[in-house]
Amino acid sequence: MNHRDFTNIYKIYKTPILYTGGAMTQSIIQLLIGFVIARFIPPEDLGLWTTLNIGVTYVSLLQAGLISGLNRELPFSYGRGNTIEAKKLASTVQSITLVTSIIILLAGSLCLLFYQFENVKIKYGVIAITIHIVSLFFQNYFTSTYRSNNSFISLSKIQVINAIVNLLSVVLIIYLAYYGLIIKSVIVSVLFTIHLFIARPIKVRFKIDKSSLIKILKTGLPIWGLSYVESFASTFDKILLLKYSDLSSVGLYSFAYYGYSLFLVLSVTIAKYISPRMSYKYGQNSDKKLLWVYFKKVTLFMSISQLILGIIALIVLPNFSFKFFPQYKDSIQAMLILICAGMLKGSIIGVNVLVSIKAFKYLSLYQVSYSILLFISPLIGIYLFENPIIGVSFGLLFANILNYMSGFYLTYIATNK
Asked: 0.85 cut: is pTM over it?
């Protein structure tokens, strides 16, 4: 193979290579930040911050169906060559995002004015979470508009810059501990949102188009409803620990959870690339069997890459954590378990093909069954194991083993019937 062949291959795979590289950079830096947090934040404070972040999941109700619908309909419209419709869709979601963000700011302000906080750390945490949620709403919208190859390259660069800012801002944690953590969260989130806004590929006015809104909600509400149930269920492990243990245990579990999150950050970012590509392809030819082939390739690639990353993590993280983070030594066994769970969860992202073909029946079966597992499995684990952290971790692992098999089977049925 000569130089020209390598050049041609790079041109073909330039976008996924750069985008995946950006995702990996984010994952690695996020892991490093997790270690810094563990070094300077005690388990009680980390548990408090983790508990406050659960609110992010519940407040996402205000974006019900909008982002899910836009993620599917925007690339589908471009695949059909309907640029005017695509811009109407973007304008509608942008406008509603602004309205919901104002509601969040007002709610946060009222909470600060009328609620008497016994712990000042909670008060400042609420301020940070409010700003973070508003930023996150706009991030969800902006990232949904990055759909062409050029815009994905631009998004990759933004993600790398954001990762660097994220890494450099850890100095705040080193010097200010818990307060540095919440200040850092605000700075990184706001700067990322501003950067996405400046480089946004679709620039439209604030205008709500009724027909576009109906189309988005018709597609997005079923998808969102199912994913929201899953998101709600994913907080159940922390809630169980709060009930059967204390904030310190939530903090210890949160540190172990970095082993799980490491794989989710990478896989979720890659999913944001492949999902619109699948919708675009389906918009061009409406061939489900081609998407089955695409799904198999994605799943094979992700399974192999996650396995390699997982083996490295299993070898390196526990020893590293034990040596440098003695206050979290009780998290190490749980981290090993959650690394395995994260490998499985991160490998099955190709199941998003069910969204592209609007196979809501199979998508419902997939997400509802996984949500039930997320509720039941950690609860069973709590009763089977003396250590609640270990019990919840094994419950999450079991849920993801069954979820991996379910995703593969349901996708096969949906694309080959």
From this structure: no
